[in-house]
Amino acid sequence: MNFIYVLSGWLFLVLGLAISIALHELGHLLPAKKFGVKVTKYMVGFGPTVFSRKRGETEYGIKLIPLGGYIQMVGMVPPLEKNVKQTFWRKLTNSVTQSEEPSVEDDARAFYRLKPWQKLVVMFGGPFANLLIAVVLSLALFSGFGGYDRNNVVHQVVSCVPSDSNPNCDQAGEPSPAALAGIQSGDKIVSFAGTSINRWSDIDPLLPKYVGKSETLIVDRQGVQVPLEITIGELTSAGKTRPFVGVYLESQKYQQSPSQALGNLGGMLATTGQMIVQLPIQAVNAVAEIVPGAPRSAEGAISIIGLGQYSGDVASNSAISFEDKILSQLAMILSLNVALFVFNMLPLVPLDGGHIAGGIYEAFKRGIWRIRGKKLEKPVATAMMMPVAYIVASLMFVLTIILVLRDIINPVHL
Hints:
By secondary structure, the protein is of the alpha+beta class. It has a domain at 148-254: Pdz3 Domain, CATH 2.30.42.10. The chain contains eleven helices and ten strands. The protein has helices at residues 2-34, 88-97, 116-145, 177-181, 200-203, 258-277, 279-288, 304-316, 322-344, 352-371, 386-409; strands at residues 39-55, 58-73, 147-157, 188-192, 195-196, 214-221, 224-231, 233-237, 240-244, 247-254. The chain is elongated. The mean pLDDT is 84.
């Protein structure tokens, strides 16, 4: 039975990912066809084709490995000029773009023939679809069903200030601020430094300015309000220092307003962006974590294998209600779409952001030529960036292998 639950978690992840990818590619397909570009293929997945059917000039299909997708547009990059000096870079570009040139009859419907603003619409359509999915899921999860947040009821007091040598307070150590203040399990935090507290998110933003200072914290203990003096401490973990109180609070489901839900989404976008920028560092850290039992950061990048393991853990956990299992899986799909949006917006070919950057550059260049009273007859030679595309794709492949190996050998579990 446990195997069935784990399998259901994996299937939910794969189905959610496949739908997200299908909608991403649809975001490219619809405007491309609207602008008259000839689209020969619309594929969800990579590898051998499992199913396909041709409608009109486009072949629609599903491939075996549901970890990506693509549409194939005629003339994705403009052909390079022939009668120019053949530098090393140009020869390298020719070697990887010679198959890109459209036939004579298809040239008028090539992607590179579009106006710059049309190219931007086509290329942004994919990431926009992922962003739209993320917005819908954010509103549904946080404003509709509600999300879990720590309330103001103390579930457990941490006895010490955790350290690398004593992370779980198994040994005697420096008492935590909560332990020194006399906070007890079951206490309800009513106020801190004169500010009323209803949930942890009310007190968390206040803590940094009170580090090292003694302040009054009032708790409700069995119906009696008890004032306590507490000095907020600090905890350093994974190279980051943050305020530390030393309590575990109970969780409670809260419904958020649409503005709060979208604010949460904005925070997710920013956090994901920071994580992606730090991918080279995370790749180095991941190599060090490819050891069974090695300490792992729960905040780092994770592969599709790691996501599947997490999804299976959630589905097989008997302590989680069926509704919360579904909501957790949907939250994971939300995170996936946030990652797909942010990652694809990086200004690097072959990512959508690279082509968007090319479209912006072309619009800027045409504007300069227009000011000078001239007309730019030829599209910008984005083909010159194709060798970079292959380099980026190779680096992405290496990173994927590292993360997959790490998640297989040293997995993170719920």
